[in-house]
Structure formats: C-alpha cells, structure tokens
UniProtKB/TrEMBL annotation:
PANTHER family: BETA-GALACTOSIDASE (PTHR42732), BETA-MANNOSIDASE (PTHR42732:SF2). One of its GO terms (molecular function) is hydrolase activity, hydrolyzing O-glycosyl compounds. It comes from Sinomicrobium pectinilyticum. Residues 349-489 form the Glycoside hydrolase family 2 catalytic domain. This is Beta-galactosidase.
Length: 763
C-alpha cells in the first residue's frame, strides 16, 4: 500500500474575498467589441444540426432588474441589458453582480409569426445560467435548471393578440451551490474567473406544425458504411410518413421512408452510405441530411441536418501500445486547453467570427484538437469545428474545488454528493451529451476534471460509456485515477510526462505546459498575474516552448496518444495563453510553432531501455552522500560508494514505490555503468525530481542541469536530449548524477531511454 503525503496545492492566490464593486472594475476590449450593437448581435441560426427556415431572433435590448429573491415578480426595472451577454459582462451594458440572495429579471416584448390554430410557436433558449423561470404574458410557461444546455417551451397556449410580453427570472448561486458551474466564482482569483449569470446564448422563436420533428440523433457506423438516425417526433395526431435523404456535395446518395402510426413518437433509420467518405482533420467531409414529415402526401415539417462518417476507438499500434484510433488508424491528437472566456463578453464571444478566431488560430499554430474545458459552447461552435476538421474533447462543467466535494489526488475514496446534487449533475450531463451527440468533431467525453466534485467515478463512467459507445471516455482527466474509462490521463505542469498505456486504456497528457508571459498593455487586472512558469520576455518564453515541444515528441515512442497544452489564451489573471486575453497579440507565430509540432504527427519508433527508472520496480545505483556541490561527475573523485535501490525519498511518498530513505538534507551522488552496442541520435531522461535540483553527466560531460519546478508530486517528467552522440560511445558508458535537496521533503529517481520518430505520417 502506498503512503499518504501532504497535499501539493497547485492553485495559487486564494487570497481574501474582494468587495463586489472590485470584481467587475477591469476592462479589456477585444477587436470585435466595437461591432456589437442591438441590431447586430448573434444573428446566426443557433441550431445547425436541426435547421428550419422559419425562425425569429429575440436577441437585443431587454429590460432588467436585480431584486431580492423575496420579491415574487418585478414591479420595476432598472435599465436595459443587451441579450445574450451575461449581466456581469461589459457587452451586456450593465456590468453588475447578482449573487445568491438576488434574482435577475428580464423582460421584453415581441410579435409572433402568423399561425393557424393547429400550429405551434416555440420559445428557445441557447443557455441560461443557472435556474430560469419563463413567463409569457404574466403566466408561467416553464422552467429549466442547468447553465450550459438549451431548452425549448411551447408557448402557444399563453399567447394573446398583438404583442407578447416575455419575462424571465434567473437565480444563480455561482460557487455557493454544488451545481455545475465551470470556473466562475464570486471572488475571482488564480484560475477562477468572474461570475456569469443569466442569458448568455441566443433566444429565438420558431413556428412548426402541430405534428413536427423534435430531435435528431445521428450516429455513424463506418465499419458497416451506414448512418443510424434516431428521429423523435411530437406524437402524431394522424398517421404519416417520415422521409430522410442524404446528399454528398449536393448530390443525392441515399434515401429512406418510414410509415408512422398515430401517436408514434420515434423512428429509427439505418441508411446505407455508398462509397463513404470518412471525416477526419485532413478531410472533414460532411454529408447533408434532409428530413421530411408528411401527412396525406403533404410536407408538414422539414429540417436540414448533416453528419460525418467517422469512428473513434482504441487499438494497438506497430509497437504494441494501446492507442487512440480515428477511423481504425492511430492518429496523435495534440490540442489546446480552450477555456472559451472573453474579457468583454465572459462566456459569450462578441460574435461568431470572434469565437471561431480562437479555433482558426489553433489550427494555424499546428494543433488538430482542442479540449473544451469545463464549459459548453453554442452549437454553432461545434458545427464550425465539424467543417474545419478540428477534433474536440468535451468536458462536463463541474466545480466545487473549495468545497467538501473536492478530493485530493491520493484519496482512494470519491467525494460523497447528496442524492439531489448527484441527480442534478447527472441530469445536466445527460442534457449536454444529448445536445452535442450529433457533432462528429467531438471524440472524447470528460465527465470529471481533476478532483472537482468527483464522485461515484466508476458508476458515472460506466453510464457515459453505455449511453454513448461511439466516443471515448476520459474519466477523470488528471488527479485521482480509478482505472476506468478508455484513457489514463495525467496533468503535469510544466511537464511533459505520462503514465504508460494499459491493455485497454490509452495514455494521454490531459494538461501540461502552462508557461506564462505577461504582455504589457494586454493584461486583465492590476494584481499579480501568473503562469505555472512565468517568463519576463518573448525570448525566454519561446525557448521554453521549444523545449517542451521537443520533450513531448520524445514521449510518442512510450505510447502517448494525445496531449493538451495549457492554453489557447490568457484568461483574467492567467497569462499562460498562446494569445493575450484580448486576442490582439499572438505570443508565438504559426510559422514558429508548426515545425515544432509537425513531428508529433509522424509514426513513432520503439522505445528502448538503457537504464530503467524505478517507478514500478526498484533499480540499484552506486550512491554517496554529502558530496561536493562542485563535483564534476567523475566517480573516482568520490570515496565510499555504496549500493542502494532507487527511488530515493526523504518522506513517505504515496506516488513512489519503496526504495531507499534519503533522510538527510545532504547532497546525493549517484552513478551507474551501462553498455551500448550503438550510439543513439537522441536519448530521453525520465526522472522524478521533487524539491531538489540535479546535474546529469554522461562520461564526465554535463548533459543537463534541472531543478524542481512544481507539479511533479504524481508523475515523472521526460526530457529529450537531441545531441546524444556528443556524450556517448560504443561499449561501456558512465552516467553520474548530483542531486541537491531544496527542502526537507525531497525525492529523486531517473531512467535513460532512447527512441526515434519515423519520417512518415501516422494518418
């Protein structure tokens, strides 16, 4: 049994609570903000997977009021708010806090399209954070709990002649409750951001017939070249016919019809796709799909949809490692941690063009994937990713980091939620998966991030797997692994490092990097800004990024399937983005990053062990203590060498096997002799260095000097040495290491490996 140690706290600047008036005093406009006005605000059709021509956008200026929860209905309003921007945002034109003791009220009026007595008028909300109650002409029409998913109400029974009055009440406890909330808190600091309350996606009307299509769930099966399409309908008032037709580049390729009985609510089609064109990042081919509901031969409802033929799974690569497969072939997925926050709009980008600029830059830098981090974007976002071929790992928004539901990385028990809290989390999880199921770009679900509200991991993961077998499950991303899901995921800052793939799980780095550079005049606030490592200028920043990319490449031969670099943009106090928070400065140009990233998409060679590390089995070294800090790595200059087993630790380290106790704060020297029958071009140092610095010598030459940089309590780091021929020779070689403790609690281990990358594309 491994032993429990004290927590490594990675979240800085917990600080004292700020006054409400200080939370929203910062301003940093993006280039798109100047084009936002009540007549030009998010005019795109908001549901691309189920599109009708007949719709009406209700975005624009509404009335608002922030009133105590004790007031049942507003008797007054305090001004105007620009929907769909959260009330705390600059673009809302309000920029005020709400809090758990108040409700945010909205009101607007509208006219409805002309409609017959049998037709329906639907009121749709893209997302409202968190609890929304909707009134039409003073009567309650419905309610919804959940800040990240759409909901729709049939408001036909509540309509009157002429103009209609829409009133919406919103209550949001932010971080005072256990509801899914992502990274918003009442007191922003560190990695936690400004509160988001109220309507933050498009509000719109749509007219349908009494009998109409309600949902479409498309799932591709490329091994059988067919599309499974599950279509829900409103419960037919008469017998009818449902017809679906698929098109490729405007040409009809397949069609099918199904007779429906009165009262029927669902029909399932399996449409054979001839000469299927597989969807991939290099060829993101999309098929169009037209769905018609007919009664007595007349079309009463018609929607446009689309689909992509692709498959996500696991399999073995040429070296026997379990790898993530796309369309039955290994494809290394390298992406950015994408928070989706905006200095002027918070959750809501100023426009679709602004929102997709982040994805366009992600592609230009050379990444083929993004991890949408504890947030759900508007459906248009995923549609554009589908068209671009950008892979998406989708997080379930969660929270509770500072509450009882947080667990530590070494804890063997999950957090315990109340039945009500668990039910709400799982309701919102299912709504998110239903809402996003049909987007081919989404290839991985992430139910839990780190220890934020992680509970019943095995049960929740099994449910997600069974509910959507067409995608992989990363559960949890980082932190307390429970051996479930399709992926073993580590978070390591700055890293990189990994756990080795398992028989039925692929290995990924769910977060690494996080290097920061605060660019003058493009910073959010007047307090301390941070990254996991922060550099003073672009030169230092670029040098470390180059080193990280080289080290990451060395991990492919160990079986690494994917990696996610933190992050796309700076966000509030975080300055570790590849762009500034206002999107005006790119810290590295695409022509600088693409050559560094390109080797990751080539086939890996086989990992060869020169000296094994001791993560799983202790290895013996010659050791000596209290060595001279100026020692140059020559073993003959040290007397009294003894044999000891690695790893070396001064404390009971839960994350390492039993090795040798390093009780003192004395410097530690190690050496080992090893044989080589050939000299590799590159070597990989895989090491564990906690609260210590090290110098590594090969045959008397200094290879590298490293120090503890935080975030290594749980995993080994990999360092690629490219000019190995400078240090090595055929036959016998000597490695010598000097380790200097920096703290009373320190630990060390190291292994030496070699690998190469083949000069051919993986996919």
């Amino acid at each position: 049994m491994k032993k429990i140690v004290f927590a490594l706290i990675l979240i800085p600047f917990l600080g004292m609570a700020q006054k409400a008036e200080n939370v929203l005093k910062f301003s940093l406009p993006t280039p798109w903000a100047k084009d936002v006005n009540p007549e030009n605000v998010w005019n795109e059709y908001p549901r691309p997977q189920m599109k009708r021509d007949n719709w009406k956008n209700l975005n624009g200026l509404w009335k608002y009021a922030i009133l105590p929860v004790s007031e049942e209905f507003p008797s007054r309003f305090q001004g105007e708010i620009l929907v769909p921007f959260a009330v705390e945002s600059e673009l809302s034109q309000v920029k005020k806090m709400v809090g758990k003791d108040n409700n945010l009220w909205y009101q607007t009026s509208f006219t409805v399209p002309e409609h017959s007595g049998s037709e329906k008028i639907h009121l749709n909300f893209g997302a409202v954070d968190w609890e929304a109650t909707v009134f039409i002409n003073g009567k309650k029409a419905g309610e919804h709990r959940g800040g990240f998913t759409p909901f729709s109400l049939d408001i036909t029974p509540y309509l009157k002649k002429d103009r209609q009055t829409l009133t919406v009440k919103v209550w949001d406890p932010t971080d005072a409750g256990t509801q899914p909330r992502g990274k918003q808190v009442a007191d922003p600091r560190g990695i936690w951001y400004t509160p988001v309350t109220g309507i933050w996606q498009t509000v719109w009307l749509e007219k349908t017939a009494e009998d109409h299509i309600t949902t479409v769930k498309n799932t591709p099966h490329i091994d059988d070249a067919l599309l499974r399409s599950e279509i829900a309908i409103s419960g037919l008032s008469h017998d009818g016919v449902l017809k679906i037709t698929a098109f490729s580049k405007g040409k009809e390729i397949a069609t099918s019809s199904r007779a429906l009985k009165q009262g029927q609510e669902k029909a399932v089609f399996q449409l054979k796709i001839p000469d299927q064109i597989l969807w991939s990042p290099e060829n993101p081919h999309l098929y169009d799909l037209e769905i018609q509901l007919l009664k007595n031969g007349k079309v009463v409802d018609k929607i446009s949809s689309y689909f992509g033929m692709r498959k996500v799974g696991l399999g073995k690569d040429e070296n026997g490692h379990t790898r993530i497969l796309l369309n039955n072939r290994p494809l290394f997925q390298f992406g950015l941690l994408d928070q989706g926050w905006w200095p002027d709009g918070l959750y809501t980008a100023p426009s679709k063009e602004a929102m997709m600029y982040d994805v366009e830059m992600t592609e230009k830098w050379g990444f083929n994937m993004l991890r949408k981090h504890v947030k759900v974007e508007p459906a248009v976002f995923y549609y554009e990713c589908d068209k671009m071929g950008m892979l998406v790992w989708q997080d379930m928004p969660n929270g509770n980091y500072f509450e009882d539901l947080r667990i530590q990385a070494w804890e063997e028990k999950d957090a315990e939620r109340t039945a009500e809290s668990a039910r709400q989390f799982e309701t919102e999880l299912k709504e998110m998966m239903d809402h996003l199921h049909a987007f081919p770009s989404i290839v991985v679900w992430v139910p839990f991030n780190e220890g934020w509200g992680q509970y019943d991991t095995e049960r929740v993961t099994e449910w997600v797997e069974n509910y959507d077998p067409s995608r992989l499950i990363d559960s949890p991303s980082g932190w307390a692994d429970r051996g479930v899901g399709d992926i073993i995921d580590v978070h390591l800052y700055p890293g990189p490092g990994m756990e080795f793939p398992e028989e039925n799980r692929a290995a990924v780095i769910g977060e690494f990097g996080g290097i920061g550079w605060a660019v003058d005049n493009h910073i959010w606030w007047n307090r301390k800004n941070w990254g996991y490592l922060t550099f003073k200028d672009q030169k230092e920043y670029k040098e470390r990024f180059i080193a990280l990319m080289r080290d990451l490449t060395g991990l492919k031969s160990s079986g690494l399937s994917a990696a996610i670099y933190t992050q796309t943009t700076d966000v509030e106090g975080e300055v570790n983005g590849l762009m500034t928070y206002d999107r005006k400065i790119s810290k590295l140009a695409p022509e600088e990053t693409r050559p560094l990233i390109a080797p990751l998409y080539k086939k890996p060679g086989r990992l060869m062990t020169i000296i094994a590390d001791s993560e799983h089995k202790p290895n013996t070294w010659k050791t000596a203590y209290n060595i001279d800090p100026d020692w140059n790595g020559e073993p003959r200059k040290i007397k009294g060498w003894q044999e000891q087993k690695a790893p070396f630790s001064s404390y009971d380290n839960y994350f390492l096997p039993d090795g040798s106790t390093w009780k003192t704060r004395e410097n530690l020297g190690l050496f080992k002799v090893f044989d080589l029958d050939r000299i590799p071009e590159e070597i990989i140092l895989r090491y564990y260095l906690d609260k210590a610095g090290m110098k590594v010598y090969l045959n008397g030459q200094l290879v590298t000097s490293e120090k503890h940089e935080g975030g290594r309590k749980r995993h080994y780091r990999n360092l690629l040495i490219s000019n190995a021929r400078k240090y090595l020779k055929k036959g016998k070689n000597t490695i010598a290491i000097q380790v200097l403790p920096q703290n009373k609690d320190h630990a060390f281990d190291l292994g030496l490996y070699t690998a190469d990358i083949k000069d051919e594309k993986e996919f």
